[in-house]
Amino acid sequence: MQFTDLFIRRPVLACVLSLVIFLTGLIAYNKLAVRQYPAVSANVVTISTGYSGASASLVEAFVTTPLEQALQGISGVDYVSSVSSAGNSRITVSLNLNADLYQALIEINNDLTPVLKKLPSGVDTPVIKEGDSNSTPMMIISFSSSKLTPEAINDYLQRVVQPQLANLSGVAQANILGPRVYAMRLWLNPAKMAALGVTTENVSTALAANDLFAQAGSISTNSQVININIESSLNSATQFNNLVIKSQQDQYVRLSDIGYAELGAQTKASSLYVNGKPAVGVGIITKSDANPLMVANTVKNEVAEIQKQLPQGLSVRIARDSSSYIQDSLSEVSHTVMVAIVIVIAVVLLFLGSFRALMIPLVTIPVSLVGTFALMYLLGYSINVLTLLAFVLAIGLVVDDAIVVLENVHRYIEQGFTPFKAALKGAREIRFAIIAMTLTLAAVYAPIGFSTGITGSLFREFAFSLAASVILSGIVALTLSPMMCARMMKAHHQPAGWQLKIEACLTKLRDYYSLLLNKVFNNKVNVLIIAGTVIVCGGIYIIPLVKNSTLAPKEDQNTVIGIVQGSMAASVVNTEAYTARLRELASNVSGVENVTVINGAGGDQSHAMLMVQLASKSQRSLSAGHIAGQLNKAAARIPGAKAMFVLPPSLPTSHDNYDIEFVIKTNGDYAELETHVNKILQAIHQNAGFGRVMTDLQFNKPEYNVTIQRDMATRLGVSVSGIASVLTNALAEPQSSEFVNNGLSYYVIPQVIASGQASITGLNQLYVTAESGAKIPLRDLIKVTMTVNPSSLNHFQSQRSVTIQATLSHRYSTEQALNFLEVIAKKDLTAQMSYATSGNTRQYLEESSSVYFIFIAALLFIYLSLSAQFESFIDPLIILMSVPFSIAGALGTLFLIGGSLNIYTEIGLVTLIGLIAKHGILIVEFANQSQKSGESLLVAIKQSARVRFRPILMTTAAMVLGAVPLVFASGAGSEARYQLGWVIVGGMMIGTMMTLLVLPLMYYLVNTAKMAFKDKGKFRLNLLER
Questions:
Q1: What is the largest CA-CA distance in the chain?
Q2: Is the same domain home to 898 and 781?
Q3: Same domain, 696 and 706
Q4: Domain span at residue 801?
Q5: Cα dihedral sign for 929, 934, 938, 942?
Q6: Cα–Cα dist 482/479, whole Å
Q7: Is beta strand 182-188 parallel, antiparallel or unpaired with respect to 744-752?
Q8: What is the SS3 assignment for 263?
Q9: Could you identify which of 257, 674, 732, 949 might form a hypothetical disulfide with 728, taking C-beta atoms 3.0 to 4.6 angstroms apart as the criterion?
Q10: What gap in Å lies between CA 277 and CA 267, rounded to an integer?
Q11: Residues 739 and 855 both lie in one domain
Q12: SS3 139
């Protein structure tokens, strides 16, 4: 008894098997996580180190470089970049995709520990954090008040809110935005200090002497233990004002005599504005493998609890929430799944002409799709945009096998067999073809499982979910479908009038196909020329598509990001004035709901970030890309700074917002590097394909160089360290001691009064103590000159570097921009300079080679799978001859719609290999059976093509029309699905047409040649004349 006979004869067994598959999937469905994309670990580790008062060059030499050298050899690292700016070093360690984050953190900690002892005194302990603190927060919770000061708000957030949010599951960082941390500011008046003979060294000494947190112990008696607390520290502005700075002959000079103390902010170098109103916020950055929807819901619930406990006068609102777009995107794909189901049902009904027959292939949809959830659960997958996208394509696929079975059984019923015998005979005959088609489509996705890049990490769930649904549909087609055919189809069914019309149309179409096929065999040379022309055209189309290739299409995520780079000398006050004008421009654009501005972004007062939140896509007339373009044009007319408005990255593996990040590295100095980079920038500005362009190296920050007159200092008995100490204490805002306020410790910062600090002439009022005790004017010991230097010094892979960051016009691709930059760089860079890429651009280059491997490996896997099933190395070649036609059709369609080669369309091309191969399997397998039954080669192939015409037509219509909702998608995330849909539609239509006409001819020619070799041992050159 054949395998299929068992289920035809035992209908309950067939039903139970399908019910078990369905129920298992249903149980698993309730346990699956819901997220935007599959869990991908694109980890970044940030190492931040403070060095108060140090210039960028000092930070580079004494902090950044030693730390970078210690990090060499960390496992799983893709590249290391760093920024050295005044008072701060930030090193970013970008790990390889899915690298072990915790192993990397352990290695980083272990490697940095020995180096810390060698760093200069005054350098803070490096802070190591998971995630990039400069990346765009997924959520921003803003707090504002008309009663509380920003410092008081910040203090409350630091004590209460930040710890609660930072400890939530999935949160990597909860950073305070626009921070105003408390500090005791000691404002020193140089004139009063000079009059009273007080130096900044005296102030530092007095602070150090009173910076005492002593533990006195306790007194024990027979009955109790009493602790003793010493009130030795200074904790209020009044206490600091009464601090004795200098005493001489019973006369005291207190701090209040030379200045004053006030409880203020540690720094005012950044600020946060929400819709033009000042606020202090908390930015939520999620872990790379966290579920953003779950994190967002958890944060919202926590914020609701926090709101109940807020002090009077303090209000809270969620200023930014990118999870709403994720939810919209998932809803949109879910809607597409339902539309595809309705379309496929309509198509199958149209071809079958019977509601009774419709139930046979229709039942495979819920069984196969719901059953797939079980495998997804076992593999740790989630319901996300890509697995739902797989379901959209699977809907047209899972009915294929059942349709093929149904058609074959129906053919035998028309020949006079009873439905039961027709089911037995039809299922036996088609069994091998079903298995071959199922395994073929599953095999095409096997290489994705071996890919370690973005394509493999993102599309593994897509591929295996689609393959699982197809395998389950094959099981249903071999078990449930034959049984349903035997019991639901009628031998003498009288069709309705509309059914007769449909049947007549299909019969005429099949007859016309038979005539056309005869003409093909009578004009072999012409047909082969036409076939070759189609393939050549596909090859021609691929040239502009390769030039137009990119990592992923830009998606409208209801957000536009503004990046501001002001003058390097600009204070945060100037930056606020500039961003206020940008905010006003953005607020007046149709579709903009709110604007959040972070001034002083990345620790640089001249930088800022704007997050322009848009209404949902369906509620506005302008796309996010169009709004970004409008804002870029408007920003170009505002003097004082550069602004670049871009769309957020489309993929979860991206941390940067730029289209292009091109890095120039050197072993030389920054001045020479800037000269050559400027040449490249001149070429870029002449290329209309580039939009806004920025670099992270600009020699436009004015600085004072203070040169110590060493000979004079020696003669007057003043040490160099004494001079440096005076300058540090006066200008560097040294965090010289700490005080306690309400259970938390804060810094004490002495500094020359701002009016004196603002002008270099204020140094003339400062004095240094000589060894003799004499007060020497600082002006006699130093020489001050003006210079211009970069505000930040950047490294890439431990080399000095400049990164060119740019947006691209709509019709200028990543590939074109890279080719252009590489040509210019090779021409203008010196021998000691080189170039590299970072961010999205680096990912694009890595994925380009990965996709080629997947495509070639998919062809190889299918060929080997078919060879094993057909026990032939020739038949699989015939079957795969339809692949070039399908690919040519897809590329031509992609070119006509103005699409690009990206990871979505490339996966679509891989999918086409399996889809189009199914047609060839049906034709070749039936032709082989016919030959074994005694038919001649020519009769067998023509009969096979005629018999398989209708199921091929039906399965193609189901697949193509099932993908139509992707083509007409317009909701959240539709940009990528739109191009993928056209690849499937165009590739299947052209591929099917050419398969029906060319593949039978190729089968005949190849088998004729094979027989000639077998019979006569030689190949006849006049094959085409036969």
A1: 128
A2: no
A3: no
A4: 559-700+793-839
A5: negative
A6: 6
A7: parallel
A8: strand
A9: 732
A10: 20
A11: no
A12: strand
